[in-house]
Structure formats: C-alpha cells, structure tokens
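User: Good morning. I'm curious how carboxymethyl coenzyme *A would be positioned relative to this chain. Could you predict the structure with it bound?
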Amino acid sequence: GGVFTFDPGYTSTASCESTITFIDGEKGELLHRGYPIDQLAEKSHFLEVCYLLLYGDLPTPAQLEDFEFRVTNHTMLHEQMTYFFRGFRRDAHPMAIMVGVVGAMSAFYHDSTDITDPWQREVASIRLIAKMPTIAAWAYKYHIGQPFVYPRNDLDYAANFLRMCFAVPAEEYEVNPILSRAMDRIFTLHADHEQNASTSTVRLASSSGANPFACIAAGIACLWGPAHGGANQACLEMLREIGTPDQIPEYIERAKDKDDPFRLMGFGHRVYKNFDPRAKVMKQSADEVLELLGIEDNPTLQTAKELERIALEDDYFVDKKLYPNVDFYSGIILDAMGFPTSMFTPIFALARTVGWISQWKEQLSDPAHKIGRPRQLYCGATRRDYVEVENR
Ligand code: CMC
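Assistant: Good morning! Here's the predicted structure, ligand included:
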C-alpha cells in the first residue's frame, strides 16, 4: 500500500542527506565540503582532498602527515592475492579484474569487515584507498604480461602508481614529475561527485549491511558502463575513429539522429546543464601536459577541440544543454602518458574510491539510514490460474 512517485532514473528523488559534495548544475559549479574543484585541482593534491572528503575539513600539517603515513603503510597487497590475478585470462579487461579482486578483499582482511565497529570501518577505508593503485597497476601488468611491480612507499601516491604501471624490474625508472602532477590532478578531479550511479550503487549495497569491499566492488561494476565511467575509454576510441577534423560533421549528424544509437561520448550530463567544471580544468591540463611533453600538435587533441567547438555552436547541443564532461579530455592526457584505453576506467575507479568510501561512511554514521528499497509500477498480467504443461 501507500502512495509513491514514479521516477525512472531517479531524476527527481533525493535518496539521502549529505554534507560531502555540492553540485550546481545550472552554474556548472562543484564544491567538495564547500571548496571549489578548480581551487582544489590547482592548489591542493589528491591525498589532501581524500582527507577533506573523508573527515570534512582540510587537514593541519600534522594531520596530513599522519594520514599520508597511514595510507602509505597499506599500499601492499597480501601476497596470496597474486593468485587471484593469475586466475584471470590475460585478455581480461582490467575493470573485470578489479571487480573480482576488490570483492575478494573481503576474504583477506577479516579485521576490517565488521561495519558496526568504527575502528574497522576506518581501517577498511584506509586499506581501500591505499591498495587501489596497486590493484589497478597489477591488473594492467597482468593484462600486458609483465611482472607485478611492488609499491615503493618513498614515492607519493600518483608517482607510486605510475611506477607500478610503467617500471620494469631490473631497469631504472624515474617518474617524470610533470606526469605525476598531471596524474594527481586527474585523481583529484575524479574524487567524488555526489549521488551518481556508482555511488548510489555503493550506498544501496551497503544499506543491507554488506561488507565494505563487496560494496566498493559493486561500485566498480556500475562505473564500468559507457554511460558512466566507461565514457572515458569510449570517448578516446571515438576521437580516434573520427580521426581528422573533416570527419566531425558526419559524427555530429549521427549523434543528432534519433534512429542512430551513437552519442557523442564525453558530452552531456544528468546534472550539469552548463560546462562541467572538471572538463574546464582537464582541458587546460591537457594543453599544459602535451606542451611540456613537446607533443602539443597531438591530432586527437586537435580533433577534440574542433569537435567541442562545432558541437557548442550546433542548435541540437545548445538546446539540450549538452557540454563536454570530465571524460572528454582526460583520455587525451592518459594516452599521452602511455596508458592504453582499457586503463582509463580503472584509473577513474581508483580515484573515485575515496568518494565511495566517504559516502559509505556518511551513510553508516547516519542513525536514520535504512535499507534501500525502491518500489515499482507493476504492469504485468493480472492474477491467473496455473495451467498444467500438457494443456498449454
Ligand atoms: N550525444 C547526443 N545526444 C545526447 C547526448 C550525447 N552525448 N547526451 C544526451 N543526449 C540527448 C538525448 O538523446 C536526449 O535527447 P531527447 O530529449 O531528444 O530524447 C537528451 O539529450 C537528454 O539525454 P538523456 O539521455 O535523457 O539524459 P540523461 O541525463 O539520462 O543522460 C548521460 C546523461 C551522461 C548518460 C548522457 O548525456 C550520455 O549518454 N552521454 C554520453 C556518455 C558520457 O559521456 N557519460 C559520462 C558522464 S560524466 C561522468 C561520468 O559518469 O563518467
């Protein structure tokens, strides 16, 4: 019984109260705990933003040092987890490996699965944030058939990740500071985004009392789809397929054609009806990084900029308020760093983990939280009597 509203896609349902992230979609504004994303991207760094999201305020120097120490202390994976990686086919998508390995963490870290214990919740949070770069890097190494590279805790979070992805044992590997700063900024830009599909998935999974690793695995699974985090891979593949600016009008026409399922990847957003502020920073970052690397005449970047220009002048995109989103320029930077497109979404997952965890912690500490249980409008058959198989 009871009255409820029909809201497919939850376009007008607030599922929780939250103090973490604020988005003004009309203005194109994104705030974490009140701080604008462009200030955080420029002046802060990923682990500081992690602290901000998790605990509500920017850390003091001592708090930051303590937090960085705790994260760094947990970067290693249980050695037996290497067998989990080895159980996958080599051609497995790294996201498939991550869903499996993160879910399997619940079988390894028994002292951080009791969600009623605040200390265990804290340890689970730190473990997930600390181990995600190792998991993503190992998914990549396994996929390309190279040996796993162990974390090196004298490096910062982004540099350590790059090294685990690109170093080869017995060979020197210096992390390029331009790349590690750009990597850190990409992490920062993806850290949280309030109640998007994967975050809502984490909250819904957790509402039953499921363990944290299972909940984050559910979030990773949801993120994978091309309408969500999978858009960064799909976007770069689309830009490559377009190839040269003269091909752009054809793709624009296809995106507008209702009979063609093709959409411009990296364009449009449920909440932003203006520029995605993350895309603005990402575009600027793409310019900077490619210039510093001396590859500013990158054809994919030229195609992306031209596509953006044409789309933003086209009535279809103007009327529907479709602007570039975070996924539009990130792939160009990741590609310049040497990542294959299959690693783009794992990098998104790695960075979003802190957002998922912050939202999960907030939900568990809310005394009013209850199991998520949407209703439906039933449109099926009315009551009818069973018919024996020989009489059908
Ligand atoms: N290209 C062409 N048309 C589009 C696009 C696009 N990228 N996005 C939306 N539209 C049209 C859509 O066809 C619809 O037209 P109509 O009203 O005539 O039926 C209208 O715009 C509204 O679209 P919608 O699908 O009802 O909007 P939504 O809020 O349900 O979807 C979205 C949001 C992000 C899934 C969608 O814009 C999309 O598929 N974009 C491409 C994939 C993408 O870039 N996703 C990344 C999102 S940002 C961060 C992240 O999660 O990774």
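Strands lie at 21-24, 29-32, 35-36. The longest strand covers residues 21-24.
Let me know if you'd like a different ligand tried.
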